[in-house]
Design a protein that fits this description.
Blueprint (H helix, E strand, L loop, with lengths): L13 H19 L4 E3 L15 H14 L3 E3 L1 H6 L27
Parallel strand pairs: 1-2
Helix pairs in contact: 1-2
């Protein structure tokens, strides 16, 4: 999740993020023979001042990295976004938190 921060405060440009992820997955597969599940993550608090607000692009880069490395992909980003379509998150997120409020109904 922190890779999507602004560059200069821990952020990684999307092309570098994808290349790094592919290298990690490839290394795991080569050294262990294990299958890998790559997952996107939920978006950060919309008021997080270090956010690049490009999590959708990072999720897509994650999906592409999974496809390019012949790995499984879990689309956490889209699942998390679905209940929020047309709604504001501002009222439901603590302004000091980067982690979303999770409830059983919010993840379905």
């Amino acid at each position: 999740m922190n890779d999507q921060n602004l560059v200069g405060v821990g952020g990684v440009p999307i092309p570098d993020f994808k290349a790094n992820l592919e290298k990690i997955v490839t290394t795991i597969k080569q050294k262990t023979g294990a299958g890998v599940i790559v997952l996107s993550t939920f978006p950060p608090n919309p008021q997080w001042h270090y956010s690049s607000h490009q999590m959708e692009k990072y999720a897509e880069a994650t999906r592409q990295a999974a496809a390019d490395t012949h790995s499984a992909y879990a689309d956490v980003f889209s699942v998390f976004e679905k209940p929020w379509r047309g709604k504001t998150r501002k009222a439901s997120w603590a302004t000091t938190s980067t982690t979303p409020p999770i409830s059983a109904t919010g993840c379905i």
